[in-house]
Design a protein that fits this description.
globular, mainly alpha, 25 helices, two-stranded antiparallel ribbon, 2 strands, 626 residues
Length: 626
């Protein structure tokens, strides 16, 4: 009896701790900071120092704040059109139509999975900026061309169009592959032409996926940060970050204006996600044959259309691959080659990665001066090494913490399926999805920049090293909804009878979870960890909001490289180091995706088969040697 009472008390303590921690996380790091941001709008003070609830609203209509909203809306609407056109194109060209070299094309189209955010934008800048490679070549051929052509709205739209097709490459590709070929074959037997089949049979099955991708693309354009900031386009997020770093001495109530823009952004996001949820609840069903057939690639019978499709496919391939190839090549060129934008085997070097060199330059007074170690490589520069280390550690902790929290929460949701408390937990975990990332980060920055928050022991989390804890919490909270959706789907694959059998054998709930459930969902958990880590490692939006000398992430280091290049003989080869940084990011991201989706996605049979092949190959080699 004593053991039973002890077990009950231990179980009760564990549940109480879990509930207390969940309430602390939700109210402390999700709800209260955002409510504090909302109150800032109505507590702004006028010039006389009196609280004026409508001051910010009047300033909104009288000032230029609507311009930022309009610019973001314009970008979002245009992105929906361009991203869907390009995204649907690359999937059809590689998965539906019979295009020569489809495997190579697919690799090129999916390069945005291994480098994104500020790394991708700086890659396009390296090509198309006023002193970029392609712009330099164009100026030599056409001297009258505008060197600053790649800036503003057109540059942002072009860059984000190709940057945002990653979701199409992942999710729309799976939707295409799941199409029942029997329906396609039946339509063709009834005399339908290939493009009629595509329009009337294939596209209707893709509508749910396309609708979800459209909503997410619209939100991405609305909340864009890195591309507008680096390419000079006035949109909402960069303005919020600028206002967050301003003071009332510089301009009228900047914090309240930033709060208002954040809330407006949140309203758009909530409306869009509500529409998406409503659409998903309606349900979408497709009638298929009892025996599902694998989709067979369709040949384009019209010779002219076939040629045009191949030309279009390879033009897109060139657009996707040119930044990657050029960045890799110039990462191994020395400072003079990068500065003149010329490729030469004579100037091949590893200095952008390792080592240091002195730099000689002429001062304003005409004197030759030498700056020791001014040319430094990626792993020999204190700033880049510090940024890599900080981003790696913070991203790994946040990605791991998000997975742990979600796994525990989803296990609780499934154990209490159909109960209100499970629904409450699920909606609370999805709460950050209702808010733009910039609102969460701005709320953290203003709310925790104080010594009056009792539940964090009255410590200012924005000061000095404490900001790193704040970054981890922001990273974790922002990634909870995505992790929940992905890991929850994996839990559906668990047969309840397995856990029941473990309990019948005397296993406790914890042992049954660790030895039965967790091994089944572990590949999905690792995949979520990899995707979250890759996204956070080069994340820019949150990094810009929390930017300080103690919270300088890798993305901020990359951005600052170009702004400081060559100033007073310091940071001379920033462009070369930036190329090396992008190559390093692609290697890290590619390795993680390979380990998770390549090695980790193989089932037990595939692993045993590969191990047997390796054993036979080794035996053959040793036999020859003998």
């Amino acid at each position: 009896m004593k053991k039973k009472a002890s077990g009950l008390s231990l179980s009760m303590l564990w549940k109480v701790f879990g509930v207390a921690f969940f309430v602390y996380l939700f109210f402390g790091f999700m709800l209260l900071p955002c409510l504090n941001t909302l109150t800032q709008i109505f507590t702004a003070k006028n010039a006389a120092g009196q609280t004026d609830p409508l001051a910010v609203i009047r300033f909104f209509f009288a000032g230029n704040m609507p311009k930022f909203i309009w610019n973001s809306l314009k970008l979002a609407v245009c992105l929906v059109i361009t991203v869907n056109i390009v995204g649907v194109s690359i999937v059809l060209l590689t998965e539906y139509f019979d295009i020569k070299g489809a495997k190579i094309l697919r690799l090129g189209y999916m390069t945005t999975l291994i480098y994104s955010g500020v790394a991708l934008v700086t890659g396009y800048l390296f090509l198309y900026d006023s002193d970029g490679i392609l712009t330099t070549w164009l100026v030599k051929m056409f001297p009258n061309i505008n060197k600053n052509w790649f800036s503003g709205f057109k540059a942002v739209l072009f860059t984000m169009t190709f940057a945002c097709t990653s979701n199409h490459a992942l999710f729309l590709r799976n939707a295409i592959r799941s199409i029942d070929y029997n329906t396609v074959e039946a339509a063709r037997n009834m005399g339908a032409k290939p493009f009629q089949v595509l329009w009337k049979v294939v596209f209707p099955t893709l509508i749910p996926t396309l609708f979800s991708l459209t909503v997410m693309t619209f939100i991405t354009g609305l909340c864009a940060m890195s591309a507008p900031t680096l390419l000079g386009y006035d949109s909402i997020n960069p303005e919020i970050v600028r206002l967050a770093g301003s003071s009332s001495a510089d301009e009228a109530f900047p914090q309240a204006r930033a709060a208002l823009l954040s809330i407006i952004l949140a309203m758009f996001t909530i409306i869009l996600l509500t529409v998406l949820s409503s659409y998903e609840r309606k349900g979408h069903y497709l009638s298929v044959s009892k025996t599902k057939a694998k989709l067979v690639k369709q040949k384009i019978t019209n010779p002219a259309a076939n040629v045009l499709a191949h030309i279009y496919a390879y033009v897109l391939f060139v657009i996707y691959m040119t930044p990657v190839v050029m960045i890799v090549l110039f990462a191994f060129q020395n400072y003079s080659a990068i500065r003149s934008k010329t490729l030469s085997m004579d100037q091949w070097t590893l200095i952008n990665f390792f080592g240091k060199q002195d730099f000689e330059f002429m001062t304003n007074r005409g004197k030759l001066k030498t700056r020791s170690g001014a040319i430094s490589g990626l792993f020999a520069n204190a700033d880049t090494v510090g940024g890599i280390r900080l981003s790696f550690v913070l991203s790994a902790i946040a990605a791991g913490l998000a997975c742990v929290i979600v796994v525990v929460a989803v296990n609780y949701i499934f154990k209490n399926k159909g109960k209100k408390r499970a629904t409450v937990v699920e909606y609370c975990m999805l709460f950050p999805w209702l808010l733009p990332t910039i609102l969460i980060c701005y709320s953290y920055r203003t709310y925790f920049n104080s010594n009056d928050v009792w539940y964090v022991l009255n410590k200012n989390l924005y000061m000095r090293e404490n900001v790193r804890f704040l970054i981890v919490m922001a990273y974790t909270v922002v990634k909870l909804p995505f992790a929940l959706r992905m890991i929850k789907a994996a839990f559906y694959a668990i047969d309840d009878e397995l856990e029941e059998a473990a309990r019948n054998l005397g296993a406790s709930n914890l042992v049954a979870f660790l030895r039965v459930k967790l091994p089944i969902v572990l590949p999905s958990v690792l995949a979520v960890f990899a995707l979250n880590f890759n996204a956070l490692f080069t994340e820019y939006d949150m990094s810009a909001t929390f930017h300080s000398s103690y919270g300088k992430s890798y993305a901020m280091v990359i951005q600052n490289m170009c702004a400081e290049e060559g100033r007073d003989g310091y940071n001379v080869n920033a462009s070369g180091r930036r190329c090396a940084s992008t190559v390093f990011i692609m290697l890290v991201s590619g390795l993680i995706l390979y380990l998770v989706y390549g090695v980790g996605a193989r089932d037990l049979g595939e692993r045993l088969e590969r191990r047997e092949k390796r054993r036979k190959r080794w035996a053959k080699l040793t036999g020859k040697a003998a």
